[in-house]
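Hi,

Apologies if this is the wrong queue. I'm a grad student, and the batch job for CLIP domain-containing serine protease from Ignelater luminosus produced an output file that my downstream script rejects. I'm not sure whether the problem is my script or the file. Here is the sequence I used:
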Amino acid sequence: MSKTAKYDLNNHFSAVTGWAITKSKTPKCTTPSAGTGTCIPAKECQPVIDFIQRNSPLSQANKDILRFYQCSVDNSVCCPDSQFVIPSSNNPDNELPPDVTNHKNIELLPTECGPITSDRFVIGHRTSIFDYPWMALLNYRLEKSGTDFRCTGTVINDWYILTAAHCLITSPTLQLISVRVGEHTINTDPDCEDGFRNRYCADPVQDVDVAEVIPHPEFDSKTLENDIGLIRVAHLLNTTAYSVQPICLPTTAALRNRNFGNTSVEVTGWGITDAGPKSSELLRAHVSVVSEEQCRKTYQQTAAVVTRKQICAGGINGSDFCRGDSGGPLTMVALHNDKVRTIEYGVVSFGPVACEQSFPVVYTRMDYYMDWILDNIKP
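Support response: The file is valid. Your script probably expects a header line. Output copied below for reference.
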């Protein structure tokens, strides 16, 4: 191929995808088909070149496929180590996340969401009281007596909590009765911290009754597919408190179809840690995303099914935060309406039975369910 041909092809690729072609480092990445690849400029990726030449002029569907291979590093492309394909073993129709830009209920999700505090950038597992104001605890009545927090979720607006479907499938021995928001250290109310020359406290926690539970209708308790659900609370949450704020969701085109590669993501919760028992204090950890292919192999001897509609993280790469609370969030920082915000990309679905098992935690992937979320919330 001549230098001129390469140059023209590169311009063609840039034109149809909207990407600038720049020199970059070569980090490893995961392709949409769950294979391995390397983030490099498109003009250096022979499978991409072959795909464009083979399919020119490119249809809109083929342009969408090319965009799906975009890396989050230096506007490069995830060049596959093998053939250029997009199918998933459990997504044969190459289904992409839905476009909800013009959904009738899109305005029910606040644009002011996912605030970031300066304390968020401190290294370590400990968190400060205003760092994660979207965190929610799900409270259950036990069979014999008393109550217990058994799952978590996130505030997505004044009326709704996002969580896992399996947290909503209760029984006579375990009944979901209420949700707590604005919590940081359980059994301490209000939560206070010492700052520079002063002491500051959060507002008291808000315990609200459950008005409605909405598990995904296609949730499968055996394979754990479609493990996502919503809770509508009985009365309006007070989101004017600094300790209770909604998290952002991937509603825009720029936030959908993200190629996570081996990206580091953040998880938060009060769940089981390497120390064993639940933590009374909200903790955080940064873990690396694991490819769908590798994750699927890890769980192949179980009934669980791993598809493109899930994200796997931690475990295999030696994370000491091997289990998060069910229903809790997997997040990344990204631009949301031109502001740097925290975006929830995953909901904790399932993970290893014991921390000694080097299994990643599996999260339900949000961008594939944004249409379902919007279909099921109301003013």
